[in-house]
Amino acid sequence: MLKAIIIDFNGVILDDEPLHFAAMRDAVADLGIPLTKEAYWSKYLPFDDNQCLESICQDHSFKLSAEERAITLARKSHNYQRLLRDGCPLLPGVSQFIQAAAEIYPLALASGARREEIESALELTGLKRHFLVVVAAEDFRQGKPDPESFLLALERLNAALNAIPIRPEECLVIEDSVGGISGARAAGMACMAVTNSYPHEALAAANRIVASLGEVQLDSLQALFEGTE
Q1: Are the CB atoms for 109 and 146 separated by under 8 Å?
Q2: Phi, psi at residue 194, to the nearest 5°?
Q3: Cα 107 from Cα 9, distance rounded (Å)
Q4: How far apart are CA 133 and CA 140, in angstroms?
Q5: What is the SS3 assignment for 107?
């Protein structure tokens, strides 16, 4: 039985993957590293900022000092915040889905984005009050496809609810990336994927694939959990 929903942020709630790409591209350009859109989407998109920067530097045989890493990550965050001020682009159907889902299920957010970025966007969109728990990049060590962020979100959700603990197999994760789906399944959770960032065929490992959260009827989600009670 479905008892909780854990939602990714970038590419599921906010259509800001292009903003993250542009912010990271400009940040690493100052190091003399070129970052193409194709490379970002094919390899780096599921990573949190630190993992993304580390992987980009490794692929270009560039060694960062601790100071350079901190400066570059701060520059990326500054770039993102500047771009976000020009508009906070919610994906279609997201606001309605989250508001309706929050009336039935406890909601958690699990993302590789920095907390400052998540909090700013949730405040701007008025969605913050619907989430009992927000897990951001600063909260875990291993990013997606590792299951750590999802398991931590469930742990904190259970602590906030202070009731009979919800089990991983009673959770639905909503993701947009291949790495996110892998992390959800490794956590023992069902996953619904939205084709906002990748084509349908790339998301085949998900339990269900939709084009938009606007097309999802909440009462249809229980069908993903038949036989799990």
Answers
A1: no
A2: -110, 135
A3: 12
A4: 14
A5: strand
d(CA 196, CA 13): 10
Count CA within 13 A, CB hemisphere, residue 141.
Answer: 0
Q: For the chain, report the end-to-end CA distance as a whole number of angstroms.
A: 5
| Per-residue tokens: 195 | 């084709």
Q: What is the mean pLDDT of the chain?
A: 93
Measured CA to CA, the distance from residue 146 to residue 121 in angstroms comes to: 25
pLDDT band, very low/low/confident/very high, at 228 (cuts 50, 70, 90): low
CATH superfamily of 17-84: Putative phosphatase; domain 2 (1.10.150.240)
Q: pTM (2 decimals)?
A: 0.81
- State which amino acid sits at residue 21: F
CA distances from 35 to 44, 48, 62, 81 (A): 10, 16, 13, 19
User: What letter represents residue 69's amino acid?
Assistant: R
Judge contact between 107 and 98, C-beta under 8 A.
yes
Class for domain 4-15+90-225, per CATH?
alpha beta
